[in-house]
Design a protein that fits this description.
With 317 residues, this protein is of the alpha+beta class. It has 6 helices and 18 strands. The chain has a 5-stranded antiparallel beta sheet with strand order 1-3-5-9-8, with no helix packed on it. Strands 2-12-11-6-7 form a 5-stranded antiparallel beta sheet. Strands 4-13-10 form a 3-stranded mixed beta sheet. α2 packs antiparallel against α3. The longest helix is centred in the first third of the chain and has 25 residues.
Amino acid sequence: MHPYVLQLSRKLGRLKRQPLPCAVNARRIYVLPTGVGLFFATLVLVMSLGALNYGNNPALLLALLLAGAGLASALSAHLQLSGVVVAGIQTAPARAGEPVQVHIQLEHADPRRREGLRVQWDDGAAATAAPATTADSHQLQAICSLPAVKRGLHPLPPLTLSTTQPLGLVLAWTRLHPHRQYLVYPAAEHNGPPLPTPPSASGNRPDQAGEDDLLRDYRPGDSRARIAWKASAHRQSLLVRQPTGGGPTPLALDWQQLGHLAYEARISRLAHWVELAAHSQRRWSLQLPGQPALGPGSGHDHLQACLRALALMPDER
């Protein structure tokens, strides 16, 4: 969409945040001619004036037919948006500085085919809605990106639906403001230090792991490296080795240990450390101010919980 048209649409009225599903109101669909449409209208006007001046009835009939086609194109573009419903929006967390991928699901109850629908967030990239991969022909889906500048939970900006179908003579658009939020994880410290070394407990033998371990049922988030495959085959259910003193001590990542760093630098350092711990399949706990400790734990679920807690840390006062 042209930036001038986008600025005009923002000034047409302040949008209220709407819960999903958001239906397009026919009274809030706006139509303007495109550059091709302005040329087409000028051409039809010149043809009409020439036909009237010279009394050329076939030329006048042709001009009227072209004008009717242009009006039908404007009406068809309006109908492309009328009845469209934003049924669902899904976002995946992204790190600050990376784009957030937003999956948008559109639906329409009437049998009219929707082609060339463009979806764009304010200050975001545009995308074309394509038919969904499901058997339902009344569903469309689009994937847009949003800039993730700052960590935290942010409300989605207003959404613009537009089309120039079927002839490209007019631009029809409408704006919606879904009541949804997206999460941005903090950016991990670039080239940060390695993980802190935990204090060694007496009797720990990192090189001996297996015989002294206890077996327990598998829980989501447990590392695959700790699965006891032979014992699981006999038990016919997944069992996990739980160290009884011979394994490495879980890492304790504490906010107070980084008092020499600035507020946001602490968050970036802890994000770097939890990613390192997850990559090395270590067990770790995370202690943030004013919150209960997370863990000890390991795996993808524990990593996501720690990154979410870091992302939701209040801003520095």
